[in-house]
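Worked example

This section walks through a single chain of length 84. The input is the sequence exactly as stored; nothing has been trimmed or padded.
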Amino acid sequence: MTNQILSEVAVSISELKKNPMAAVDSGKGSPIAVLNRNKTAFYCVPAAVYEAMLDRLDDQELIAVVNERIAEPSIRVDLNESAL
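Given that input, the structure is written out below as tokens.
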């Protein structure tokens, strides 16, 4: 059975255990695939990439909310008007 690796760099789990930072650095800022018995066990993603992924996911959720509400009638608001 073939196994697709969705990364340009792959390291064995043994390499990761020996020197985790060298394994992460081998990706030069990109995610690395960690292999166990030549099968992808997981992906190791640098913090900056992970944060960017979360930001994009958050943006996608906000886009869904906007698309849901786009047909709702708008309400004119005067920010200088007192609510009291």
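What to look for: The beta strands are 9-12, 32-36, 39-44.
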